[in-house]
Predict the structure.
Amino acid sequence: MGITRLASKNARNSGNCQWCWCMSAENGPKPDAARERRLIRIQAISGLVFLSFLAIHLVNTMLAAAGEGAYDGFQRATRLVYQFPLIELGVLGALGVHVVVGVLRIAHRRKHEKAAHVPRRLLLHRLSGYFLLLVIFGHIIATRGPSVVRGVHPEFIGLNFSLTSVPYFFFPYYVLLALSGLYHGVNGAMVALTALRVRVPEPLRRGPIFIATLSVGALLLVIGVLSIGGVIFPVTSDPEHPFARLITELGASLGVVL
């Protein structure tokens, strides 16, 4: 199948051509179609694997609106699964593969594609992906590192300490992180399933259900972050919480006062 026909077919299946180069003879050289399809499948599978981990964390953030007990209880129960060594290595491996393939496709696109109008939905997918690419590994180190090295988990009070210590940085950061994860995950799932030739109903893929899912999810995530920061309801901060003490020690060693 020629690349132009492939792009046209994919565009009809996914609502916009998010997982193909969308290149024709008029706007750049044709990439190897077989290689591109292979990268698409690898990216789709690795993205869906990592989405299982991402979904747990998004739900955990939403549950913060129900209080510290709900947030910590859900996290303690689920991390018995996602921090099981083989599962954790598999999830991190899937993330690594997804990032590498994504970077390869970005580089190829920038090298071969001419500037063209990008549909809004695809643009948001790319922008959210760029932001996640910029922060995701630092975020994993900051939140998982303390538990590996010191056996300390941030949990609700630990995150509250971060949010209230440097609010002008951490509130926008966590909101943007959550919303980027939600959009990139939900939209990416629709694209990945389509790429793997799984039939997704139109309303779920890009209709009212898709929009409602994103809207409700975004609202719950913002409420969750604000709840952790003590904006929705009072939160008793604990500077003696193990994670808070660790952050304070690290800040002191770096000459930063929290």
Q: What stands out?
A: The chain has one domain: 3-253.
